[in-house]
Amino acid sequence: MTPFPVQAARRVKILVAGDVMLDRYWFGEVERISPEAPVPVVRVARREDRLGGAANVARNIVALGAQATLLGLVGNDEAGEKVQALVHDAGIRPCLVVDPQAPTTLKMRVLGRQQQLLRVDFEDSPGIQGVADFDARARELIGQHDILVLSDYAKGALSQVGSLIHMAREADIPVLVDPKGHLYQRYSGATMITPNRAEMQEAVGRWHSEQELEDRAQKLRAELNLEALLVTRSEQGMTLFTDRGRQHTDAYAHEVFDVSGAGDTVLATLAVTRATGLPWFDAVLWANRAGGVVVGKLGTSTVTPEELA
Asked: Which PROSITE patterns does UniProt cross-reference here (predicted)?
């Protein structure tokens, strides 16, 4: 495998645009069951906030040694202020648009003895003006970067994703997309999309053999005019489809502790390695290794070049 491009990564500038969120963790101990209902009582001992969604992709890019600019929507609220502070602390260049009509997307997790007991989500669709301001900022930023990464969590920031892809392709900037849902025509013209196994099944139907998967993947790739399509398949590894055909790598993970944010790490690693000039499959091999490392950690986390080595 080609060595990880540590020196070249420092010169890379990547624009990450998409759904920004805050991952909030409350850690505690469980010693009894509530007398009010058959649920555990968690005595919270520690609280921690982490960047999630597109912000976690940018955080991973910086951890790998590259430069990241983050374009996203946040609300005029405490969670939005926390995202701004965490982005600054992570060394990410912030381009966060404040949308007064919608709250910052917040995922709050309650854990007892390192086991997740509950998740509470706070979210709403962004306002029309917020999306318009987001797209205007994208138009200013795309040409200043080596690659565009679109992190779609279906929260609304990428409601005009087709125009963003068109802007990037006009500027001859590659576009990597982590898709959501099954209506993949909206990603037409991107350079690569990276659906997971469930998302791919939703888009093309269930397959019963590797040949059937290849036929459907290559058909989808042609329909969307993609250079590459990567299906991340959890314990089955990753399968890349390009003009060269099918290339597969088995899963790297030795121990799976938490899959939260693993797709963000994979996307970030693909972006960094491709922007430095690595061939598609070499980039996939490094992304597979990075994903295997991060699922051994709790919550949304990052991977460094030292860990990959």
From this structure: PFKB_KINASES_1
| pLDDT above 60 for 75 | yes
* Contact present, 21 and 42 (Cβ < 8 Å): no
CATH number for the domain including 263?
3.40.1190.20
**Cβ(275)–Cβ(14) below 8 Å:** yes
More confident residue, 286 or 308: 286
In a domain, 258, yes or no: yes
Tally of domains in the chain: 1
> Own/partner pairs for 210-218, CB < 8 Å, 24+ apart?
210/246, 213/239, 214/241, 214/245, 214/246, 217/241, 217/246
What pLDDT is recorded for position 2?
86
* Average pLDDT of span 224-228: 98
Active site residues: 264
What pLDDT score was predicted for residue 235? 84
Amino acid identity of 190? A
Q: What is the DSSP letter of 44?
A: E
17 found inside a domain: yes
**Residue 56 three-state SS:** helix
pTM of the model: 0.93
1 inside domain: no
Going by their DSSP bridges, the two strands 228-232 and 93-99 should be labelled as unpaired
Q: What is the DSSP letter of 5?
A: -
Cβ partners under 8 Å of residue 1, min gap 6? 282, 285, 286
Q: Is the pLDDT of residue 298 over 90?
A: no
Q: Domain of residue 193: give its range.
A: 6-308
